[in-house]
C-alpha cells in the first residue's frame, strides 16, 4: 500500500510555490562541483563530502551546505546548470507549475551583478531540453493545453512532460535597505522575463523588519506580489508586523502564539507548508504535531511545498505522501489540495486557466479520484 500511494503521489499533478533554487540542487551535482572546488583549493572537499552524501542531515550539517551553496552560486555557469537541472527534476515528478525563488547576488570579485546572476538563471531556464518548460516568452495555443499534459503517462500514453516556470526574487535578511530596493526594482524590470513576485527570506535571526520594510512597501506600490517567510523563530514583534503587512502569501508560519494563529486564520492569507523542512529545522516538533493539521481542518488556504528539496532530501511527491500517511488524507483530498494551489500562484490568469484545465482533464478522465 505504501509503494502504491507513493507512486500515486508522483503521478499526481502538483504545484510548487516555495522552492529555493540553491537548496534544490541535486546531491550528485553538489558532489561534483564541490570536488572541483576542492581540487582548486577553494574548499576542503573532505569536510563536506560525507555531508553531501548523507540523507537525514542534522541542522548544523544543513548550514554547512548552505555555506557551500553560497560559494557555488558566485559562478554564472554553475547557476545556469543548477537552474536547468532543478526545473527538470521538478517536471520529472509531475510538477505542472513551479515558482523558483532565488536571491540575486552582487559579487564584484567574481564579476557578478544582480542582473548578471538573473541572466544566468534565465539562461538555465531556456536550456531545459528533457521537458517542455513553458516560460514567459513561450507561445501556447489553447488547443495545445492538454496535448502534452504533464500527467499524460497516467492514461498509458508517454508524452513529454510540461511545466510552467516563473521566478521570485528574494530579499535576503542580511541585506541593506538599499540592496533590498535594488532587488525590487530588478523584479519590476524583469516582469516580462518571468519574474512574478518578491520573497523575503534568509537567516530568521538576522536583520530587522524595519530594514526591508521600505523595499516591501515599494513592491506593494508597484503591484508586485509578495511572499514572506514568517514565524520560523518565535519573534513576536516581527510576526505581528508581517501579519499586519498582509502579503499575498506566507511561508512556514511555525512559531505563532494563539492570538497570532487567530489573526492568520481571519486574514485567510495562503500558507506555503513545508513539512520536512519545518521538522528538520525545529520549527515543528514532529510530523504528527505539525500545524498543517490545524490549518487544514480550519479550511485555511494551503499549498504543500519542499522549501529545499536537495538540502532536506525530499520531493514534492514525498511531501504529499507524508501528508497522506501522517494525517490520513484520502487521494481525493490530496487531489483537491494540489488543485487548490493553482489559485495561490502569482502567475497571470491565462496560465491559471491552463493549469485548471490540466486538473479538470485528469479528473474527467478518471485518472484521479
Automatic annotation (TrEMBL):
<keyword id="KW-0546">Nucleotide metabolism</keyword>
<dbReference type="GO" id="GO:0004000">
    <property type="term" value="F:adenosine deaminase activity"/>
</dbReference>
<dbReference type="InterPro" id="IPR006330">
    <property type="entry name" value="Ado/ade_deaminase"/>
</dbReference>
<keyword id="KW-0862">Zinc</keyword>
<dbReference type="GO" id="GO:0046872">
    <property type="term" value="F:metal ion binding"/>
</dbReference>
<feature type="domain" description="Adenosine deaminase">
    <location>
        <begin position="13"/>
        <end position="356"/>
    </location>
</feature>
<dbReference type="GO" id="GO:0006154">
    <property type="term" value="P:adenosine catabolic process"/>
</dbReference>
<comment type="similarity">
    <text>Belongs to the metallo-dependent hydrolases superfamily. Adenosine and AMP deaminases family.</text>
</comment>
<dbReference type="Pfam" id="PF00962">
    <property type="entry name" value="A_deaminase"/>
</dbReference>
<protein>
    <recommendedName>
        <fullName>Adenosine deaminase domain-containing protein</fullName>
    </recommendedName>
</protein>
<keyword id="KW-0479">Metal-binding</keyword>
<keyword id="KW-0378">Hydrolase</keyword>
<dbReference type="InterPro" id="IPR001365">
    <property type="entry name" value="A_deaminase_dom"/>
</dbReference>
<dbReference type="GO" id="GO:0009117">
    <property type="term" value="P:nucleotide metabolic process"/>
</dbReference>
<dbReference type="GO" id="GO:0046103">
    <property type="term" value="P:inosine biosynthetic process"/>
</dbReference>
<dbReference type="InterPro" id="IPR032466">
    <property type="entry name" value="Metal_Hydrolase"/>
</dbReference>
Amino acid at each position: 500500500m505504501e509503494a502504491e500511494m507513493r507512486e500515486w503521489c508522483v503521478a499526481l499533478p502538483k504545484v510548487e510555490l516555495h522552492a529555493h533554487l540553491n537548496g534544490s540542487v541535486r546531491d550528485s551535482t553538489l558532489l561534483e562541483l564541490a570536488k572541483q572546488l576542492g581540487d582548486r583549493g577553494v574548499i576542503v572537499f573532505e569536510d563536506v563530502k560525507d555531508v553531501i552524501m548523507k540523507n537525514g542531515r542534522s541542522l548544523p550539517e544543513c548550514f554547512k551546505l548552505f555555506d557551500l551553496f553560497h560559494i557555488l552560486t558566485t559562478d554564472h555557469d554553475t547557476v545556469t546548470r543548477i537552474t536547468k537541472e532543478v526545473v527538470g527534476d521538478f517536471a520529472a515528478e509531475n510538477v505542472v507549475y513551479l515558482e523558483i525563488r532565488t536571491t540575486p547576488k552582487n559579487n564584484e570579485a567574481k564579476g557578478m551583478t544582480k542582473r548578471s546572476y538573473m541572466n544566468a538563471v534565465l539562461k538555465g531556464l531556456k536550456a531545459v531540453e528533457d521537458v517542455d518548460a513553458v516560460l514567459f516568452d513561450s507561445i501556447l495555443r489553447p488547443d495545445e493545453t492538454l496535448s502534452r499534459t504533464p500527467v499524460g503517462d497516467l492514461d498509458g500514453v508517454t508524452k513529454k512532460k510540461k511545466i510552467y516556470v516563473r521566478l521570485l526574487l528574494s530579499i535576503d535578511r542580511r541585506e541593506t535597505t538599499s540592496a533590498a530596493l535594488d532587488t525590487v526594482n530588478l523584479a519590476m524590470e524583469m516582469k516580462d522575463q518571468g519574474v512574478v513576485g518578491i520573497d523575503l527570506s534568509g537567516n530568521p535571526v538576522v536583520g530587522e523588519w524595519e530594514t526591508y520594510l521600505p523595499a516591501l512597501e515599494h513592491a506593494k506600490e508597484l503591484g508586485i506580489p509578495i511572499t514572506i517567510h514568517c514565524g520560523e523563530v518565535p519573534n513576536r514583534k516581527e510576526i505581528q508586523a508581517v501579519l499586519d503587512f498582509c502579503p499575498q502569501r506566507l511561508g512556514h508560519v511555525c512559531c505563532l502564539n494563539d492570538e497570532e494563529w487567530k489573526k492568520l486564520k481571519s486574514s485567510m492569507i495562503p500558507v506555503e507548508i513545508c513539512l520536512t523542512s519545518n521538522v528538520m529545522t525545529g520549527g515543528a516538533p514532529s510530523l504528527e504535531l505539525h500545524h498543517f493539521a490545524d490549518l487544514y481542518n480550519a479550511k485555511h488556504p494551503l499549498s504543500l511545498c519542499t522549501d529545499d528539496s536537495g538540502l532536506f532530501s525530499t520531493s514534492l511527491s514525498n511531501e504529499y505522501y507524508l501528508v497522506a500517511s501522517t494525517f490520513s488524507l484520502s487521494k481525493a483530498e490530496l487531489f483537491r489540495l494540489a488543485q487548490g494551489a493553482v489559485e495561490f500562484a502569482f502567475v497571470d490568469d491565462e496560465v491559471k486557466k491552463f493549469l485548471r484545465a490540466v486538473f479538470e482533464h485528469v479528473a474527467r478522465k478518471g485518472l484521479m479520484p
